[in-house]
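Hi,

I'm pasting everything inline rather than attaching a file, because the server keeps stripping attachments. The sequence lines come first, and each chain or strand is labelled.
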Amino acid sequence: MATPESNALLQSVADSIADGLPVDWQTVEAQVDGQPLRLLKQLRILSDLATLHRTQPTASSGTTPALTARSKPATVIGKWGHLELIERLGGGASSEVYRAWDPQLECEVALKLLRVDDWSGDPWSSRLVREGRLLARVNHRHVIAVHGVAVQDGRFGLWMQLIRGANLYRLVVKQGPLSAREASVIGIDICQALAAVHGAGLIHRDVKAANVMREDGGRIVLMDLGMGSEREATRSGPNDFAGTPLYLAPEIFQGRQASVRTDLYGLGVLLYYLVTGSYPVRAATISELKDAHAKGAVVRLRDARADLPTRFIQVVERATAVDPELRYPTAGAFEADLVRALDDTSAPTSGRRSRVSTRTKTLIAASIAALLVLGALGWRAVTNRPDAALAAATVRSIVVLPLENLSGDPSQEYFADGLTEVLISDLAQIHALRVISRTSAMVYKGAKKPLTDIARELKVDAVLEGSVMRVGDRVRITADLVDASSDRHLWVQTYERDLKDVLTLQSDVAQAMAIGIQVQLTPQEKASFGAVQAVNPAAAEAYLRGRYEWNKRTNDSLQQALVYFQQAATIDPTFAKAYAGQADVYNMLPSSLKVSDTQSSPLVMYPLAKATATKALGIDSTLAEAYASLGYARWFSDRDSAGAENSFQRAIQLNPGYATAHQWYADYLLAVNRVDDSLREIETAKTLDPLSNPVRVIRAAVLYSARRYDEVIAQANEAIQAEPINAAAFYYRAAAYEQKGLLPEAENAIRRAMELAPRDAFYLQELGRVAAKKGDKAEAARIIRDLAAPGRPAGTTAGPIGFVYAALSDRDRAFTFLAQAEREHWPALLWARTLPELDPLRNDPRFADLLRALNLSR
Amino acid sequence: MNEPPPGGSVDSTFELLRRAKAGDSAALERLFTRYLPALRRWSSGRLPRWSRDLLDTDDIVQETVIRVVKRIDTFESRREGALLAYLRQAVMNRIRDELRRSHRAPGIDELDENQRDRGASPLEITIGREAVERYETALARLRPEEREAIVARIELDGTYEDVAQALGKASPDAARMAVSRALLRLAEEMDHGNA
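And the predicted assembly:
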């Protein structure tokens, strides 16, 4: 409906078009509807038309060639200066190319001759001169070499090396798409050529398949710097199609300068073309092309040819990223990744990168064919291929492999790992899906195992792999879900966002994937995904760094993690996860068997854990991690059995896939002597995190309290096999042997633990117990003296001494020291109801007193 | 039209036409100087790239102008803009004839590697063949003065001074208003064509 406002808007737009000024179409189109909107659309066409006419090459001004002086196109074989023309090779609007004999150089050359003979002030002639001069500045085996440029017989000419071969465009037309390996080899050569061009201070501006020759001997030669320019002053207008539209980087259409990165974008498109015979952005007109760029309607290479090696796909996708900042900064960086991709393509029959069945290849071929027919709309058809429907019935368990860090900077590893963890955590919220936990997923970091093997080892239906690239405050994530049994790609998506939205992004990925594989989300899960808030980018970054350190689980890394989580909370005080992270650290510091630090005293740490977990839940009451931390702290700090149980159950309800919650709950259940329940929870944790050593060790602990010593030994051995420096696993092996009376084996095992953690009081007491059981009271007494010696952190020795006295059957001293340990909140004592070490004391009335003091008397 | 017409006055243009028709080659050269650059530039937006190997843009434009000059007996309008629009249409018709004659105007499906060498003109590539046709139809339905404003400013990229002179307007501002109004009218006509 036309209104005075819409009329004024239309008038203003018409004025802008008349004046040749740009119009912000998105904004103005959003302001009207109905007929005014339709008129705006027509005006947009008129604007494009005006711009096109305005930006056509300027014809010679003022001087019009006289009617009689015009030359006919030179189609006859003849001479030009000293060159003898042998054969016409081709020609375009402005020039013709001949094969010619150069008697001075005594070789055949290619001669580019201008059509017009009056070249003074003619743009085509100046372009030819420029091309000659630019080429002369570049000396490289993969760049065409120029011999000279001159005016002869009134005609302008440029003569250069004659390349016998075919250009890559014709090569693909004739032979069909190339393999990733062939394309990589060619791409490496072009990167070197472009490095030389850029090194000479030039931009090529028309990198495309038709401008690259493959010489008969195989040499790759970059041609045609006719569009090239100095790196300075290369601004192009919105319709200045210097270059071939399909190869133009999106920012060129916005009038931005041609640059090294736009050349490298062109090379990315070229590689895409080589392996598909098509282009990432497809359109019938420039307007459509611009629209396609604006909408990000890109046919991803992995959709066009999913059979290609992932690394090659990633290289091409990075080169053709919409955001120039996400692309390769230099031809050298591009080349380095292509070399790596080449390594990846060199072993086509092994490794997880080549796992496509013949049937899939057929499907892909069909998809490519469909794309060729469907054109710009085709990509939608491909991303909705039937595999996704098949997934509905099959995918109920997945593993998220560590997202690959594509930044090329190892110091960014934390970022990829951190996002992997966030993604796992988000997916784990979905009740209908079993998601392998982070620890087990991380085992496959950098491993080149076939996905089917990984799926079999983890007993999952599908594998999600992907990559992360971050440049400044922009993040790009690609995720690819593969069906384990058939190797089919079920779901592929690429996302690009600001860093502040990175956590929302993971939530979006998780939700989109769930929808993609038709997993039913509960209303609560949907609400939870929707509730993820954007955070300050610096806070998100600090948080991810914190998670990275936290996962290392060493004393130093836990301290470092704490610093990062605190930083995150300082930057963004409403960032709940930052407080939950702190709570996790406070809980871990005192209970880590490897830690002996007064700063980490349980009396200090658990209350802090409780406070920070509570703070996190005050901001976001749906955080499973915070509930799990709260449960842990309630138990260890307050010995609040009911409170702890509630928190653990709430955590598991919110995020049934959070293995740590099951693991801690199992620990708690063991302490309250619900051994069967504890076993059930630890089995759940193991299913979710089958390769996690913390889970293995806790499972050994549960089995130990269940007096299933042979299973303890088997479980400890499994942990040791996975991590030969796991002192805690050696401890449980020792303790189980001790209970079985196999004392030499026990001594061997505990000495191994002590080699790994020489100052640990808990391992030393086990050595004392073994000595006591062997009847070596002097050695046991020496160990007790060692434990009691000054220099050990407060609160860490009374309990161990009590345990040795228990083994010596010295009940009085045992109870004295255990009472002290209870006052010091020595963590291990909380398992007093089930620990086999305390069996000799159980029938003593003082044991009931101890349990009462521990709030374990029920 | 970037260059202000030498001599400048409308009368001189029609005087040049008359003299050229009478065989004055100097007058013809001056007409060429005045109109050929803009018409050539315009036609380069309308000719498919592939055709430029067969059809020389300059030849087409120049020969068309010569034909127009020779055939014009009386030119009713005294507006230079009318002459420009007439010349533009004559060149357009000539391009169409040549393309038909060449029997090779491949349809555009998708842009491809050699899009600049295939059947679509730069304008068709930019706005699409269907929009070009709709535009031409709508342009033909405009009133002569509106059409001339569009041709002089939007197609031939004349300055507002040029346009004022071509349309017989008092000032560049008046020319600007005329162009702007003509654009809105053209958009309406195109929208009707779209319905």
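Chain A touches chain B through 58 residues (CB under 8 Å).

If the labels don't parse on your end, tell me and I'll reformat.
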